[in-house]
Amino acid sequence: MKVGIVGTVISPEELKRRSRGFELWGINNLYSKFQEIPFSRWFEIHEFSCHEGLFTRRGRPTFGNRTINQYLKDLDSLKIPIYMRRKFKRIRQSRIFPFRKIMKKYGSYFGCSMAWMTAMALDEGAEEIGFFGITLDGNEYYYQRPSVEYFIGLAKGMGIKIYIDKTCRLLQSNYSYAYKEDYNLVYMLHGEMTKEITEIVTSAISKKIDDIWVHWRKS
After folding, report:
1. What is the mean pLDDT of residues 16-26?
2. What is the pLDDT of residues 65-113, one digit of tens each?
3. If you count DSSP H runs as helices and E runs as strands, how many of each does the chain have, helices first?
4. Beta-sheet pairing, 161-164 with 128-132
5. pTM, rounded to two decimals
6. CA–CA separation, 50 vs 17, rounded Å?
7. N or C: which end of the chain has fewer CB within 10 A?
8. What range defines the domain where residue 192 resides?
9. Are residues 205 and 150 in the same domain?
10. Under 8 Å CB-to-CB from 107, ≥6 apart: which residues?
11. Does 68 lie in the same domain as 120?
């Protein structure tokens, strides 16, 4: 069993060439980019709610350029197993994702869907796991990428073969700490991170003060 977990930063043509022999697993609304790719499973494990016939995903009525009702219809049209938090009547191939079973075996360190997918591949006995088009770069992914890399390390420790496509940024750093460093880059990155943390904290404090002020005026 060779499982290929697919992200956005790869073209359909590259994916076809490089993923031969892999059972491909897709995620969220990736189907719009890879319409001609034969995926075996799909994963949409976020929370959905419904009010008066209108669905929301993670509290929002749209995802990408689609309403959530349209998005769910798109998922149903894939006609492959779709792993979700619960079964949906409107998604005939929906399956319940085994959160508890996986957490019982591997703990609770899951920062994103791809970490869950990697753990599921391990649990199902994959002999090789490939990663295609996955970067997890930027502020949004600082808390997501480490858990994927943790499960990659766990898989390697279990003797499972890992393939990381050149379109991925997984298991990469700007330098090898202490062994071969660019001091200027070290200080620059440290400075940028310190500045970023300061801006985030300042913004949060300002918002809290504004909220308190508004509440005080109303009262």
Report:
1. 95
2. 899 999 999 999 999 999 999 998 889 999 999 999 999 999 999 999 9
3. 6, 11
4. parallel
5. 0.81
6. 40
7. C
8. 174-219
9. no
10. none
11. yes
Q: Residues with Cβ < 8 Å from 52, sequence gap 6 or more? A: none
- Residue 214 in any domain: the answer is yes
User: What average pLDDT does range 177-181 have in this prediction?
Assistant: 71
For 119-132, what is each residue's pLDDT tens digit? 999 999 999 999 99
Q: Are residues 9 and 58 in the same domain?
A: yes
Mean pLDDT of 135-147: 82
Identify whether 169 is part of a domain.
no
Q: Quick check: 48 and 57 in contact, CB under 8 A? A: yes
d(CA 47, CA 180): 44
Bridge-based pairing of strands 48-51 and 54-57 is antiparallel
Residue 164 to residue 22: CA distance in whole angstroms: 13
Could you give the CA distance from residue 59 to residue 206 in angstroms, rounded to a whole number? 25
Place of tokens 């959160």: 99
Indicate whether 105 and 181 sit together in one domain.
Answer: no
- 35 and 108: one domain? yes
Distance CA 124, CA 40 (A): 14
pLDDT, position 104: 96
